[in-house]
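User: Okay, second chain of the day. Same drill as before: sequence in, structure tokens out.
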Amino acid sequence: MNIFQTLEKQSNVLPEQYRKMGTDELEKIVQSVKDKLGSKLYIPGHHYQKDEVIQYADATGDSLKLAQLCEENREAEYIVFCGVHFMAETADILTTEHQKVYLPDMRAGCSMADMADIYQTERAWTKLENLFGETILPLTYVNSTAAIKSFVGVHGGATVTSSNAEKMVQWAFTQKDRLLFLPDQHLGRNTAFNLGVGLDEMAVWNPIKDELEYDGPLEKVKVILWKGHCSVHENFTVANVEDVRRQYPDMNIIVHPECSREVVAVSDMAGSTNYIIETIEKAEAGTAWAIGTEMNLVNRIIQQHPDKQIISLNPHMCPCLTMNRIDLPHLAWCLETIEKGEEHNLIKVDEQVTKYAKLALDRMLALV
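Assistant: Same drill. Structure tokens below.
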């Protein structure tokens, strides 16, 4: 074995042999390993995954649902999470010591989660407590790193999902006068607005400048929004909505609450991924829909509902690039290394981080 083969074997880079394989060969590998490992293997697949990957998923759903299904499945020894890094971390946090969680491609991260690292958050917390005292409770979207979940757990807060964000924000206000919402400002803003918090009562924490962005009197602030966003959902614009209204006057527009406040305000409906899926499923045949969410999911919904007219709210939208890093070659490679007893792309969260991250998750799960 030469030095390049050695480096490749020790790295998380996809070996060249898998890049050269055709679809049929890769599919045979995946199916063969699934057949051999049986119930010892569990493959959860996020809604935003490519069809070439999702066809092998034992369960599909959003990030928290999949992590909970991993927690319930005590029989599986190997969990190959087809999603992004923070999702695999959550699965590792909720599963047992004998279970191992893998991510087929370690480059599959989340730009939103990466917009709030633990060092920025700890600095921000110190400055915010200097400004507001001990009046703040942190909440974090589940689309965040294990370290951020752990930070929130340490400071008495909880995680939230796009489905339960309103309930969790209401709970937060029973604990403290103010809340810090990480890492997605748009979900935080839309949720607080729906609960009657004025836009003039929301400040933004800029982690790059390390400062609070707010013009009014500090005592008026109720919600502090972390200046982060989803790179996919922020690309839906008011102009997109106006174009659809002009071309298709009778079309319903439904968007994810990770879209900006301006887009949500001019859309007909806004809700979580599951809300969008269920709304389209329940809609009458012949109805027309423009959907503002990730393109792999939109295309799958279009295929599943030929009786309805469905388009993307933004016709030029790309799929989530980091989610798309999980592909058939990486899945085949990951499964073959597991079968061989190797541990490439193993996701393991530190024991202390796990303890407090799970506390933040459990506080949420106890309320919803």
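Residues 1-10 have pLDDT under 50 and may be disordered.

User: Thanks, on to the next one.
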